[in-house]
Design a protein that fits this description.
Bound molecules: zinc ion
CATH topology: TIM Barrel
Order of helices and strands: EHEHEHEHEHEHEHEHH
Largest sheet: 8 strands, parallel
Distance between the termini: 39 Å
Radius of gyration: 18 Å
Strand content: 15-25%
Helix content: 25-40%
CATH class: Alpha Beta
Number of domains: 1
Strand order of the largest sheet: 1-2-3-4-5-6-7-8
Shape: globular
Number of strands: 8
Number of helices: 9
Amino acid sequence: MSYRKNEAIPINPEQELPIVDCHAHFPDKEPYRKPTHSYESQYEFFFEKHNGQFIVSSSSYYNYDYLHEYTQIHEEIYLTVGCLKPSDRYGMDVVMEEHPHFIDIVENKRDTYVGIGEFGLDFHHGKTQSIRQEQIDYFKRVIQETKHLNKPYALHVRNATQRDVDQKNPNHEFNQRDFCNKIIVKILEEEGIKPEKVMWHCFSGPQEWGPKLAKLGYYISVPSSAYGFKRWRRNISGVPLDRLLTETDSCFQHPFKMGGFNTPANVKYAVAAIAYVNDMKQQEVAEKVLENARKFFDIS
Ligand SMILES: [Zn+2]
C-alpha cells in the first residue's frame, strides 16, 4: 500500500463537524477491500463522534437486498437504489435480467429510498464501441423509465482516458476525454431532468467541467480522497459551495492511502479539502454541505 502524503493538504480535518456522506457502499457483503474494523464499529464511531448523516448506495440488485435490510434496521441511514451498467464484465443479458427487479423496487418501494443511483457511464470498464453504445442506450432508458418518480439521481460518470482508447476505433468520439459528460448532459436535457435533481458522484473531471456543471445547476460530489490527491481536488476549483456535496464512496477513495479501506466518518477529509481549496472555515463548509444534502435528498 503506498502513501501519497506529499500531495495531501497541510491542514487536519476537524473532528466535531456536522458531516454528511452522500454516497457509501456500506456495509459491503463482499468488499473489494478487507475492512479494518467491523461495520458495526464503523457505524458506532460515525454516530458517536460525529453529528451527521450518511447515505448508502446500491449498484446492482445483488447488493440492494442487504442494503435495503440494513437501512430498515438503521432508520437514520438513507438508501439510494442503483442498477448495473453494461461493461466488459457484465453483458446486456445480465443487465436485462436485473432490470425488471430494479424497476419494481423504484416503482413500488418509493418510501424506502431517497434517490436513484448509482448508475451511469463508465468508459474505463467499457472499452469497446458496442459496450459504450449499450451503456448510453441503457442510461437513457433508465432515465426515461424513472423520471416520473421525481427522485434525485446519483450518477457514476467515468470518461475514457488515454489508456482507455478503443483500439479498434481510435478516432471515435467516444474516446474524447469529456464525451461521457457531454452525452449525459444532452440526455438529461432532452429528458427534461432538472440539474438540481442530479449529483455527479465522485466527480472526476475534466477540470473545466466542474464550474461548467455547477453553472448549469448540477451538484458535484467531492470524495474524501480530495484530501490526499491533487487530481480530485483540481476538479472542485471554481465550483461554488452551494453546488457541492461530500462522500466517501466507501470502501473506495481513502483520504490519502492508495488502496486503503475507507469508512463514512472519513467524509470529514472531503470537508477539509473543500475548505482548503476555497480558503474557508471547515465548520462553514460542513454546515453548508449538510444543508445542500438535506435539500437534495429531501431528508431532515
Ligand atoms: Zn460508488
